[in-house]
Each structure stands twice: as structure tokens, then as C-alpha cells.
Design a protein that fits this description.
- Helices cover 41% and strands 23% of the residues.
- By secondary structure, the chain is α+β, with helices and mostly antiparallel strands.
- Strands 2-1-5-10-7-8 form a six-stranded antiparallel sheet. A six-stranded antiparallel sheet has the order 3-4-11-6-9-12, sandwiched between helices.
- It is globular.
Length: 299
């Protein structure tokens, strides 16, 4: 169990208390799959304690947030950075994998866990991380939609392959953002709101090769310097973010048999990349593969 949980997310110590309160190993059923860049796991087993200690945390670990949905009848006790809560059946809990935490799960546990890189959440990562160790009921609104989606997904983890996994991962990221970043009226950060609008605009026009800092800034009545500053604050320079979004869509099309009749250049042009050298360098840098190798890897 411990090795499996650590492989899916990050190094963890997982034990079950014996009659004298000492920690012993235990077994559980784990079904897990990668949905794009998001890991999803369903864990069913006996009572156990999950601990991520300071010694287990390394600077080379991916910056992950772990989001759990609890299905056990008995509550789970959560403790991270001085914040403590009890998660009941149907509650979400966020845990920041870059900091130590303890999660004590009751007997007959049934937990859905999502591991998501902070980079996938963009400017929303901080808002989600700020909810760490606090329970979030999943009985209404976007939280209820996310809960239903995850429960359905957990029944089909081994049935999704290839491009379907990436598309499901996209949907999951969107639902996570919707469920965990609701704000009170009047409390929205204007810079974050503008970055969100810019991202939506760019993704709607991503096939346009003329998209650049200047054109996007002009479309939003701000200067190129302001655009650079907004995106730097959100964690990724605009040009790097746009390049990454385009390359990810090219990669997905190359992995999807429906596009086999298209050349790599045609696939790239569909997403606004018209320079073959730019495409080759980008794919090699971001994925360590050429376009041809990506298609061969699929088979």
C-alpha cells in the first residue's frame, strides 16, 4: 500500500495502528490512472494513518496538491500546518504535498484522491492551496458536480486510454477550479480576473499564428508591459504559457489516431505553429520526443 500510494502521488508513510497503538503495515486495494497530467486513485482498505514528513519532502518533488473525496462512514482526521479538521462522508479536503501533513482514515475507508500539479491550476493554485486541511462539503453547486464526476470516473479508471484520458483530465481540472475557487462578491482579485479573461481569449483564438503579447494586450486595452507583469505574477511568462498550451494540443493530436492522415506540420498549423523548427525544438524540449517518436510511442 505504502509503495503504491507513494508512486501515485509522492513519498508517503502509510501505517495501520495495532492494538498497542504501534504502526504496522497493512494492505488495501488501489485503482489508479493518469488523466493527462492529473493522477486519480481510489483507495479502499482498513483504518490507516498517512503521513508526509519534512524528511520525505525534497526540492525535486513535483509541486502537487492532493485533493481527497471521503466516502467512509466514520470521519477522517486531517492536520496540516496547524489547521485541523474532520472530514465526513462526502467531504473534500485539500492537502499541499510541499508541506508535512497527517491524515488518519477510519476503518472501511473509501477515498478518492486526485494529485494535480499546481501549474495545472494556473493563477488559481494559491486559492486552492489556501484551503489545505479544511473540509469542503460536496452537497451542492460545483462541489456536487465534481463529486459526481469523480465517482463516475472511479468506476472507469481502467477503461480510458489514449486521447480520452487527456480530455477527461482537462474536464477534471476545470471542475476542480470551479469547485475550489468560489469567492464572495466583491472579493475577486482584479489581476487574477483579468488573467483569466486573457487565458479564455487566447485559448479561443489559439489557432491564430498572429497571437502575441502585443496583439493580446491591445485586445484587452493594456500595455504589453502590463501583460508581462500579470503573467509573471501568475507563475508563468505569457509566451511560455502560450507555447506550452499549443504544444500540448499538438501532442494530443499526434497521439490521436483520428489525425493520422495529417502530417505533423498540418497538425501543428492547426494550433498556430507554422515553423517546423519551432515545432521540433518545442516537442523535444517539452516532451523529449519528436513528432514521429510520439506517434510511434502510441503503438
Amino acid at each position: 500500500m505504502q509503495n503504491a500510494a507513494s508512486t501515485v502521488l509522492a513519498p508517503l508513510a502509510v501505517t495501520a495502528p495495532d492494538a498497542e497503538g504501534r504502526g504496522t503495515s497493512f494492505r488495501a486495494d488501489i485503482d489508479a490512472a493518469a488523466m493527462g497530467r492529473v493522477a486519480v486513485a481510489r483507495i479502499r482498505g482498513s483504518a490507516h494513518l498517512v503521513q508526509r514528513s519534512s524528511r520525505a519532502i525534497s526540492s525535486t518533488d513535483p509541486e502537487l496538491l492532493k485533493i481527497t473525496l471521503h466516502g467512509s462512514s466514520a470521519p477522517a482526521a486531517v492536520d496540516q500546518a496547524g489547521t485541523q479538521s474532520r472530514a465526513h462522508k462526502g467531504d473534500f479536503v485539500v492537502l499541499d504535498m510541499s508541506r508535512p501533513y497527517r491524515l488518519a482514515v477510519a476503518d472501511g475507508c473509501d477515498v478518492l484522491a486526485v494529485g494535480i500539479p499546481r501549474s495545472e491550476l494556473g493563477p488559481h493554485a494559491r486559492a486552492v492551496a489556501d484551503r489545505s486541511a479544511r473540509r469542503l462539503p460536496a452537497d451542492q453547486g460545483a462541489q456536487a458536480v465534481l463529486s459526481g464526476f469523480l465517482r463516475g470516473l472511479s468506476r472507469h479508471l481502467d477503461g480510458l486510454t489514449g486521447p480520452a484520458q487527456a480530455h477527461v483530465g482537462d474536464a477534471l481540472v476545470s471542475l476542480l477550479i470551479a469547485a475550489f475557487t468560489e469567492t464572495e462578491p466583491g472579493r475577486t482579485d482584479m489581476g487574477t480576473e483579468l488573467v483569466d479573461r486573457i487565458r479564455v481569449y487566447v485559448l479561443a483564438n489559439i489557432s491564430d499564428p498572429s497571437l502575441c503579447v502585443e496583439s493580446v494586450a491591445a485586445a484587452h486595452s493594456i500595455s504589453a508591459r502590463q501583460l508581462h507583469r500579470l503573467f509573471s505574477r501568475s507563475g508563468s511568462p505569457f509566451a511560455a504559457w502560450l507555447r506550452g498550451e499549443r504544444l500540448e494540443r499538438v501532442r494530443r493530436d499526434l497521439l490521436d489516431p483520428v489525425h493520422d492522415h495529417r502530417t505533423a506540420a498540418a497538425v501543428a498549423a492547426r494550433w498556430g505553429i507554422h515553423d517546423p523548427r519551432h515545432l521540433a525544438r518545442g516537442l523535444k524540449s517539452q516532451y523529449g520526443r519528436t513528432a514521429r517518436e510520439l506517434r510511434l510511442d502510441r503503438s
